[in-house]
Amino acid sequence: MDSIIEVQRQTHEEIEHFERALYTLLSKPQPTHETRLQTEHKASQILDRVSSRAIALKNSYEDQDARSAEIDALSARPDDLSEFYARLGKIQEHYAKYPESGPSGFELELAAFLDVTADNIGDEEYEDDDPIALLFSGEEQYGKYLDLYANHTAYNNLKHIGKRLGYLHYLDALLAAQTNEVHLELPKECRLGRDYELYVKSLHTYLTSFIKRAQPLLDVETQQRDAEAEFDKKWEAGETGDWAEVRQASAPSGEGIWCAACQKLYSKQTVYDAHLTSKKHVKATAKQASSDLPPSNPNGPSSSSVAENGSSQQSSAIFKHRNAALYTFLCTRLLAGLAPVLNETKSNVERRFSLTAREREQELLEQSKPKAPPPPSSGVNGENGAEEEEEEERIYNPLKLPLGWDGKPIPYWLYKLHGLGESRHAFGMRALGLPNTKHFHEITRIEDALALAEKLKREGRNEIFEQETMEELEDEDGNVYNRKTYEDLKKQGLI
């Protein structure tokens, strides 16, 4: 058995090493979202190990008997060092037997954290088997966005929901939870159903799971326990807003007339008398008589049985509705913390709705490609750096599309919509009596085309209106000439 004092010393040392590794990990720069999230997951794992060792250390210090017994054994007599030398002999024997022993399990564990740091996070070899990427769906994009499509479908399938919402309107409804309880605008009959309870539980499970994966350093479980304690106080005090009315409406009073055959409680005598002649009651009475059960008592059972049955029904109904109210309250707190992510999710959905199918496919292909590591900077002179910046700023535009307000090529569908470079544009130019030259290629409005023509005339550039220079022709080799030059070269036999 190892010495308890040595175990405590070793545990203190391991905690100190983990704290240093945590500092080394968090002090590295995190340039991208992926590297930041990977670092946070590593830091969370280190904190879990520090926490487990701290708990073990606390328990060992609380075991005063074992510690006192060992201290007494070592200090029984000041002149008796036999116990000390016996332990020293065991240590020397171990190292004599294993003179070149490899690193311990703790050293290997610590090296695993220090090897995978911000220095090599992002390398192609590391991305091939990145365990963090496997935690997220494609829609979540490495924890950047929420994937609420399944919850949206469950929401629209609720009974008595009234108006069903599109996905964007559903996200707006969740965003409104920052100032009000989520889905409190739903009708009472909808929130009293079993479907709503299952839906809000599923929503709570997903939000909790997403926070644990996307924000691993956040102690969401402690926050949820505090929120549940706050809800309990409000529930007992009747301060749960509209849920307090639901609680009162759903709770039976426990008073009325009990029908033993139908196993049902009737609130009024007239209602009870009317049901005695119904087929359901007659059939239930006959079944009760054939099974040798006590006969139905029109005057109702004893007050104690009525109270017991009413109390059971009341507690069951209140518990069911309390669960729905609790998970609604917890989801509200989670959504308030996820408001920035929810806003980013909405923006991403709106952006994707504006893309064509071809552009969406291209985006998916770009996301699936591994990121190339940045080229090493030479740092010899400023010219190389300027060339690299120029290459980065160069825009890929093989179709030669016009640039939009953001400096990037406009979508191809917008290019076709305006009729740029198409027969529609050429027909419009002929109708205006203007040449279809390159000066007018990106003009889409009639007034703009006329204004440009007047400007060109004022500048003395009337040659663009000459038919022989207006048209451009292409030879078999792909060379482009105006009509006059083309005809001259063709007469000379050069084309």
Description:
The chain has 495 residues and is mainly alpha-helical. The chain has 4 domains: 4-135, no CATH class; 147-260 and 300-370, no CATH class; 413-460, no CATH class; 471-495, no CATH class. The chain has helices spanning 4-26, 33-62, 64-74, 82-97, 105-115, 124-128, 149-156, 167-175, 188-191, 194-214, 220-237, 242-250, 269-275, 279-290, 303-337, 339-353, 357-368, 382-393, 412-417, 423-432, 446-458, 467-470, 483-491, and strands at residues 257-259, 264-266, 472-474, 480-482. The strands form 2 sheets. Strands 1-2 form a two-stranded antiparallel sheet. The protein has a two-stranded antiparallel sheet with strand order 3-4. Strand 3 (472-474) and strand 4 (480-482) form a beta hairpin. Helix 10 runs parallel beside helix 15, helix 11 (220-237) packs across helix 15 and helix 12 (242-250) runs antiparallel to helix 15 (303-337).
Q: Count of helices? A: 23
Shape: flat
Q: How many distinct domains?
A: 4
Q: State the end-to-end distance.
A: 99 Å
Number-wise, the strands total 4
Any idea what the radius of gyration is?
A: 39 Å
Q: Structural class, from secondary structure content? A: mainly alpha
Low-pLDDT runs of 5+ residues are: 117-127, 293-308, 310-314, 376-382
**Main sheet: which strands, in order across?**
1-2
Strand content: under 5%
Chain-averaged pLDDT: 75
Written as H for each helix and E for each strand, in order along the chain, the element string is: HHHHHHHHHHHHEEHHHHHHHHHHEEH
Helix content: 55-70%
The main pleated sheet reads as: 2 strands, antiparallel
Domain U1-type: 254-288
InterPro entries: Matrin/U1-like-C_Znf_C2H2 (IPR003604), RNA_Proc_DNA_Dmg_Regulator (IPR051421), SF3A3_dom (IPR031774), SF3a60/Prp9_C (IPR024598), SF3a60_bindingd (IPR021966), Znf_C2H2_sf (IPR036236), Znf_C2H2_type (IPR013087)
Protein name: RNA splicing factor PRP9
Region (Disordered): 283-311, 360-393
